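Reproducibility note. Readers wishing to regenerate the assembly model reported in the main text can use the exact inputs given here. Chain order matters: entities are listed in the order in which they were concatenated for prediction.
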Amino acid sequence: MKAVGRGLVRRALGGLCTVGAAALLLAACGGGGSSASSSTSSAGPKVKGGTVTWAESSGTTPNYIFPLTTGATNLVVNSQFTGLMYRGLIYGGYKGRDLIDKRKSLYQSIVYSNGDKTVTITLKDWKWSNGDPITTRDVQFFFNLVKANKSSWSQYSSGLFPDNVKSFTIKNEHTFVLQLTQPYNPSYYTGNQLATIIPLPQKVWDKTSASGKVGNYDMTTAGAKKVWAFLSKEGGQLSTFDSNPLWKVVDGPWKLQSFQANGHAVFVPNKAYSGPDKPVISQFQMLPFTTDTAEFNVLKAGQVDVGYVPSNDLKQLPALRSQGYKVVSSYPLHIDFIVPNLPNVQVGPMLSQLYIRQAMQELIPQQVIVKKAYGGYAVIGAGPVPLEPPNPYISPLEKSGGPYPYSPSKAKALLTSHGWTVSPQGVDTCAKPGTGAGQCGKGITKGEKLEFTLLYASGGASADLEFQAVQSAMAQDGIKINLKGEPFNTVVSQASGPCNPKQPSSQNCKWQMVDWGGWVFGMDPVEPLLFASTPPNTGGYVSAKANSLIRAALHSGNPKAVFAYEDYIAKQLPLLWTPSGASLVVYKSTVHGVAPVNPFGTVNPEDWYLTKG
Amino acid sequence: MIPFLIRRIVQSAVVVVGVLIITFILIHLLPGSPARAALGPQATPAAIAHFNQVNGFNLPLPEQFLDYVNRVAHGNLGYSYTNDQTVASLIANRLPKDLVLIVFSTALALALGVPLGIYQAVKRNSLGDYTLTGVAFILYSMPTFFLAFLLLAAFAVQFHILPPEAPQAIGVVGILSHPAGLVLPVVSLALVSFAAFSRYMRSSAMDNLVQDYIRTARAKGLSEWTVLVRHLLRNSLIPIVTLLGLSLPAIVAGAIVVEEVFNYPGMGLLFFDAALKQDYPVLMGFALFVGVATVVGNLLADVVYAALDPRIRYD
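Running the prediction on these inputs yields the following structure tokens for the assembly.
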């Protein structure tokens, strides 16, 4: 799970390669999660070897090689970088879909028993690059490190993994057993909890200093803290990424050959890689870029093989195609939404009224936004489960477009029937205050205006167009939206949680509605944190029924429980659903295997090959 | 001169401390928190508390400032939590890029602007003067990013004559070993500065051409070349030195644009990103660096004044 900035979906994807992956839902998916298009085709013969260059997301470069990231190093580019060398227990993403790729995963089998309170996991007979087998001790090493250092580990959420593991038992070199504190929905537990496990080479890394000997330090909490501190420190030394013996032992398909502090990384195949899809190309290079502009300039000049199209440059897609590039769109398991600050002292009483949120939802012109702001490369939001990539969690209600599709007439009728004087292109006012039928509702005074400020993460043409469309559409029924665009980091630091009415002058009481770009899920889109009673539930929505439905979805194996949660949240509108943009990857027609793109942002150059152009 | 230098160095130290204090106050007036900016909206209260403790943001502000000053005094500029590197190493990696860019572009701008300014003054109101004035106005009114895009579109994308990005190597030697990559960034930055330098030089030279000492030099029978180079040039350069100091911020600002367009991660983008991400150690380190560079630059300008004009004395 991860929240993302608008226009930063692509960046957010890689974060999921460490948390994503779901299980057991495979058959229900239809259609691909990504699609490619091109005006050219390549027919040259396949080449063995060759170099492929790949554009890193702008403004961010690998700065941490230890695969267990901290909060501040939890960057997508770090996940993509380490993901080439270190593979998780579970590999999320199969043919562009929200599925596990069992072939690429390290596990042989995952069996839930004892009412879904016991998980028995067997590993494949794979090896590290130094020839050592990957064993359950390597998984235990990971487990001990994150358990002793959970406050530093980026994937940690209180009460979840590893808190929800009562015991970790090694049965033999290939099988271990997790005893859970309570039953979990296997799909959720596999996709969002077990997917955080990354076996680490205990025989090489279990040490507390560079010159110290390898031991079993992780078996005590104090020792595990020292090991973490050592590995974490070494993991941030850019100048030794390509020379430190620690990072020479890998289990992924790639080994780091060279690295520059500016983020330029060169990988070569790990010849001892045990998994399928051995690399065909002989070198893979990650190229750093200061900005989207710089990346796109280099792309247009034809000096990068696989890159991306920034949202500001969607109109240049035809020009890229004419240059011989292919374009593939990819949807992460992501929803986007506007968060209403329900306890806000000034506008909270209005935003807390479901009928007002419903009217606002019915005034968001999602189809227009998809077409005009995203050039068709977006999908509408209908509820808490994304409609793309194809996944089995989408309820029939969401599939139909959600409970509140765009309808200005319905929105107007809703407001009028609740005592508002509707003034198209003006500002609606409450004519009938009170809590009875046909009245505005609790805390709303006579003459109060239906006017809100929407803070959003700007920086891209799509975002600006989207919110101008929202503003314009709401104005037709007299809901006045004042737009305030700020950089992503400014937005999230200003709207960090719901207003506490007892501290009306605090920062969190200054924002009314916010859109910081939405949320990317693990492989299972049930997210307990999104509506929890503490941050990161930014809007302050609290509902006993919602909590009970979430618990049922998380802890029971009944798929209908997910639908029940999903439909309830879709109707209650704790968030206003907005379209979710795709990431657009472009690649030269001589590079093959790029499409479909992994929906969790993992880069797979081991699947790529070149043909003569 | 020595007492003057000592006085100026003491003044400079006071200015730098003042810059640090003001910067420290300003960055703490920014809305939100660095923890939230660094960890994102998904961060739990526990993660934020941990972050604040690790980075010392849980301490009172005066204590944080004194701690910072103490560390700086010991040569430690702090640690960037968004880059996961020391501020010193970030500056060490980025600074050579800007130095190369600014030195080369300024040198090119001066190399073009000074002689052409003198030429225009000497040949004022001629076709050449009008043409160069027109070119200067066009370049001067052109935003750096626009000029950069034009050059890029023509020479890198359309004709593939030059690389679309600046050298990616780290260190001056590495950068200079790829001179082709430097052409477009340097020219983009130099052409805008050149326009200003040539206009000032023309004006300054015209003022000096009617001075008695020029008439005297010509009356003595000196060649026109000697008059222009030995007498006119030296005296006309004084306002250019002032302009050079004044235009340094504009050159640095232009460098940020060039860094952005030509994929050249320098100090400007480092500061820009740090401001967006509320990376306090980098912001403070940058302010310290710029503060020191500015006072040193001013000091050097004063010394250059004295060298150019023997009438100027600082005793």
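We highlight two features of this model. The two ends of chain A are 40 Å apart (CA to CA). The domain at 334-525+575-581 of chain A is CATH 3.10.105.10 (Dipeptide-binding Protein; domain 3).
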